[in-house]
Amino acid sequence: MSTSLLFLIVIALGIVGWFLGNWRARASVGGKTSALHSRPGYYGAYVLLWTTLPAVFLIIVWNVLSPIAVSSLVTAKLPENIQNGPEQARALTMSTVRMIENGLSKLSPEDLDKTADPATDVKALLMSKGAPLAVTPEPFAVDAARYQLTLKNSSQLLLTLSSIGLAALGLAFALFQVSPKLRSRNAVETVALAGLLGCSMVAILTTLGIVLSMLFESIHFFSIVPIQNFLFGTVWDPRFSSAGSGSGGGGEFGLLPLLWGTLYISIVALLVAVPVGLFSAVYMSEYASRGVRMTAKPLLEILAGIPTIVYGFFALITFGPLLRDLGAHVGLSISATSVLTAGLIMGVMLIPFVSSLSDDIINAVPQSLREGSYGLGATQSETIKRVILPAALPGIVGAILLAASRAIGETMIVVLAAGIAPNLTLNPFEPVTTITVKIVSQLTGDLEFNSPQTLVAFALGLTLFVFTLALNIYALYIVRKYREQYE
Amino acid sequence: MTVDTAPMATEALDSPRSKQAMKARIARRYAAERRFRAYGVAAILFGLTFLVALFSTIMVRGYSAFLQSAFTLDVHLDPSAFGSTTPPSETDIRMADYTKLANRALFQALGVDPANKADARAASQLLSQNADVQIRKTVEADPTVIGKSVQLSLLAHGNVDTLMKGHFDRSVPENRRQLSDKQLGWLDKAAEAGLLGKHFNTGLFTYGASSKPESAGVGVALVGSLYMMAIVLLIAVPLGVAAAVYLEEFAPKNLLTDTIEVNINNLAAVPSIVFGLLGLAIFINFMGIPRSAALVGGLVLALMTLPTIIIATRAAVAAVPPSIREAALGVGASKMQSITHHVLPLAVPGILTGTIIGLAKALGETAPLLMIGMVAFVVDFPTTPLDSATALPVQIYMWATAAERGFVERTAGATLILLAFLVCMNVTAVILRRRYERRW
Amino acid sequence: MLNVQTNELQQGATKLGGALNPHKVAAKDVSVYYGEKRALFDVTVNIPDRGVMAFIGPSGCGKSTFLRCINRMNDTIPICRVTGKITIEDEDIYDPSLDVVQLRARVGMVFQKPNPFPKSIYENVAYGPRIHGLAGSKAELDHIVETSLQRAALWKEVKDRLNDPGTGLSGGQQQRLCIARAVAVSPEVILMDEPCSALDPIATAKVEELIDELKQNFCIIIVTHSMQQAARVSQRTAFFHLGVLVEEGATNDIFTNPNDQRTQDYITGRFG
What we know:
The structure holds 3 protein chains of 3 kinds. Chain A is an all-alpha fold. Chain A folds into 2 domains: 3-182, no CATH class; 255-442, MetI-like fold (Orthogonal Bundle). Chain A has 18 helices and 2 strands. Chain B is extended. A 3-stranded antiparallel beta sheet of chain B has the order 2-1-3. The two termini of chain B are 52 Å apart. In chain B, 64% of the residues lie in helices and 5% in strands. By secondary structure, chain B is mainly α. In chain B, helix 15 (335-363) runs antiparallel to helix 18. Chain C is 40% helix and 25% strand. In chain C, strand 9 (236-241) and strand 10 form a beta hairpin. The two termini of chain C are 24 Å apart. Chains A and B meet through helix 8, helix 10, helix 11, helix 12 and helix 13 of A and helix 2, helix 10, helix 11, helix 12 and helix 13 of B.
C-alpha cells in the first residue's frame, strides 16, 4: 500500500475518531454538554489527535529510516570486491540494482520467480514489460535487486499494518479516556501550541538548510580546489571542461576579481542611493507638505516594488546604450555593460530602501530636540544637519548597511548590465563581473553536478551568504538598539 | 552660587554681533537653508524622473507587442492533401502538409506564380513558420472543414511585422535588407488590399517559448507563475501566520525565541539567489524533485516569502489592542480561543495586505528560479506542478538575452504584463489597507 | 473691561514700586487660533525687564500657547494663526521683515522636559554660539561655554567631563544644561515652559535658585502649574483661564488679594 494512501486512511480514521469522541462526550453527560469540562468538539479533536499523530509520526520516521536500512542490507549481500571497492563503483552498482528493482516491481510473481534462475534473460523479460535496461545485468545484481524488492515490499507491509494498528490503538485509547472530567481543551491546545512553535522553527530550519547545504557542497569543492586558491586567487577562469572528466579539469577559481566587481558596483550604487535617499527622506519628513508627502512617498516606493529583472532590462536596452553614446560624445569610451551602468541602475533601485528606513528613523527623533534647536534660533537646515542627523546617525548607518547587503546580493541587474568578464579594474567604464553573475553562469549550463565548475557556485554562494549575514545582523542590531533608545 | 556675571554677554559678544556682521551672517545662513532645501527637491525629482523614464521606455518599446501582423487568407483545404481515406484518419490530419496549403493561399492572394521558383520562395518567406500549426489546429478542431475554403488570419513573418510597425528602414541597400524590393511590393499591395493588417496579439498570452518572435508568448510562463503563486499561498500563509501568532502571543523571552526572531529578520534580507542554491541542493539534489518543476520554484519562493508574511502578520496581530484579548479572557475563553475567535479575525486585513505584498515580490523574483533550472525552453503548458515550467520574469530574462530584434518588443510587452499584475496586486493591498484600517 | 483693569493695576504697581524697570515685552490683543478653534482671547499684558513673570492657570488655559507666541515657536505648527501685536523693546516681532531666527536668538526658551541634544555637554552649550557665529575663536567659545555653565550653576558638577554625553546627566542637571544652552546665546528674554514639572523636589529647588540668580540679567517668563512655585520665584503673576488673561499683577497681590472671583477660586484650590 502506497504511503500516500496510508496517509489518507489514517486521516479518515482520525475523522471517524472525531465523530466518535464528540458523540461519546455528549453521551457521557446525557446531552447536557454544559456538564463537560470542554466543548464536545474538543473531545472529538482529542481523539482525532491521538489517532493521527502517532501514526503519521511513525510513517514519516519509517520512510526516512527504511531506505537506509534496506540499502545497507542489500549492500551487505553484494560480492566482496564491490563492497570493499571504490565508492564510485559501489554507487554505480547500487543505481543499477535500483533500476533493475524498478523493472522487477512490474513483473508478475511467476515471472519474478523465473528471474532467480540465472539462465533467464532478465533484460529481455523486463523489456517486454516496458522497463528497458541500459546494461545486461550480472546475476548478482539481479539477485540483489530481487532481495531489495522483497525487503521493500515487506517493509511497506509492516508499515501498513503497524501504522493502521497504531491509529486504531490511539483511537481506542483516547475514546476510552473521554469522560466529563477530561480536560480535552487543554490537551488539544497544548498540541496546537507545539504546532505553532514548530511552524516558527521553519525559519531556523531554513537558515540551517542554507548553511548546511552550502557548507557541504563547498567542502566538496574545497577538496578539489584548495581553499587558499579560491580565497586569494586573482584569476577567474573555470575552463568549462567536458562533462565527466571529474578530476578538477584544470581552471582557476580566484574569488578576488569577482569580489572586487561586486564591491565596486555596490560602492557606485551606494554613492547614488545614499545621498539621494537621505535627502529625499529629510525633505519628506522635515519640509514637505502633507500633500507632497502623500504623493511623492508612495511614488518613490514604487521603485522598490519593480522587479529587478525590469531594471536589468532597462539597463540593457536603454540606459547602457545611452551612457555609451553620451561617453562617445565627450570622447570617453564607455562600455554598454559597465560598472557605471550597473552601479547607477542599482543605486536607483536602492533609493527607496535608504529613504523609507531613514524616514522612519528621522521621524523617531523626538520632537523636543527640534524644538530645543529652533528655540535657540537655529534654521531648519541647521537643526537637521547639527541635531537631527547626528541623533539619527546610528539608525541611518544601519539603513545604509542593509542597502549595501542588498546591493551585494543583487543578481538580475548585474547579470544584464555588468558584463561577464572577470576584471580587476579601477575604470568604472569597463565591464566587471560579480559573485552573483558567476553563480548564475556556473549553474545555468548543462554541467555535471559534481564537477568543480558547478560546485564553485556553492562556494560563491557561501561567501555571499556570510558577507550579507554579517552585514544584516550588525545592521539589524544597531537599528534595534537605536529604536530602543527613543522608545 | 557666586558667578562672574554680566561682562561676558557684552564684551565677548559685542563685536561679532555688530549689526552689519550679523546681517551678513544671517544672509549666508538663509542661503544655506535654501540650498539644503533644493538638494532635497532635487533628490526627489531624481527618483521620480527615473521612474517616469523607466515606465515610458518600457511602454514605448512594449505597446507594439500587443499588436501582431497577420495575413487574412482564404485557405482552401484541398481534400487531396489529407490522404486517400474519407473521412481522413487522425494521422493524415496530423501529417498533412499545411505549409503547402498556406503558401498556395498566399500565392493566390498576392498573385504570385507558383511555377516561378524564386518568386515562390520569396513569397513563402513572408508567412510565419507557425502558419501551418494554425491551420492544423483549425482542422483538428473541426475536421468537417476539409474540402472547404476557410478564411484564416495567418501570422506574418517577424520581418513583415517589423515592417508593419514602422521599424523597417527601406533606405538600406537591398542586399543588406531582410526584405527585397519585390517582397516589399507584394506587402504594400497586400496591405492596401486589406489582406495584411495588424490585429490584437492574442498569441502573446497563449503561446509558449519559441525561437521565432512572432509565435512566442508568455502563456506557458503565466501558467507556471500561477502554479508557483498557488504553492506559495498554500505553504507560506499557514506557516507564516502560525509562526507569527506564536512569536507575538505565546513566545516566552528566551534564547530559542530570540534566535527565531533574529533568523526571521535576517532571512528577510538574505539575497534571493541564496534561496535558489538552497532549492537546488535540498529540493532537487537531496529530495529528488525534478528540475524545472513548478513545485521546486513554489517551495523556494514560499521560503523566501515566509519572513515577509511573518513580519506583516506580527504587526497586524500586535495592532489589536490588549483590551480585546482581556475581554475574551474575562468571559472565560482560553488564550488560544481569544486569539482564534477575536484577535486573528481582526488582524485579517493586515495579514492579507502582507500576503499580497509578499506574493507580488515572489511574482517578480527571477534569480532563484534560474538556479533551479527554470530557464528551460518550455513549449507545452505544464499540467501538474511536477512538469517542466517557467515563470513570467524568467521568460523576460530569456527574451532579453535573445538576439532577434522582434524579441526586444516581446520582452518589453512581457514586462508590461508583469508590471500590470504587480500594479493590480499592490493597488489591492493599498485598498485593503485603506478600507479596513482601524484606528483603536 | 479686564484690560482696563489690569492696565490700571499695572500703572498702580509702577507708581507704588517705582523701582520696576520699563516694559521689555508688551502684548496687545493677542489671539491664537488652531485652525477653527480659538485658543487665546485678546491677551494684553506688559512684562518688565530683569524680573520673573509667572503665568499660572489650570491646564489648557492658554498660558503655554501665549508663551510660545513670544518667540514664535507656534510658527512650527502649520495650522496655528496669531493675531494682535507683540513687541520686544517696541519692535513688533510679528512684523514680516523681522527674522524669526534672530528673534529666537534674543528670546531663549527652556522646555517642559529636559531636551539635551545627544551630544557632549560642551557641544550642547556651544551649539547656539556656533550657529549664530558668536565666538571668533576656540578660546572665546570655551569662555562662553564656561560662563554659561557657571551661570546655570552646573560648572562645578561637569567641568571634568565636558565631553561626556549630555543625555547621561540626571534630570535636574539636564534641565540646568538646557538653561545653560539658552543662556549661552545671551538672550534678552528667557521663556520657561514648566521647567520643573519633570524634576524631583531637590532638582526643582536648584532650578528655582538658579532662576532667582538669572533674573538679575534677564527678563524671565515662566509658565508653571504650581502656585507655590509662582509665589516663590516671581515678582509678577498673570492668571489665565479658558484662554483669557483674567488678572495680572504683583505676585503678592495676586496671591493675597485677588480682584477676580475666578482667581480667588483657583488659588484657594476650588478648581484646577
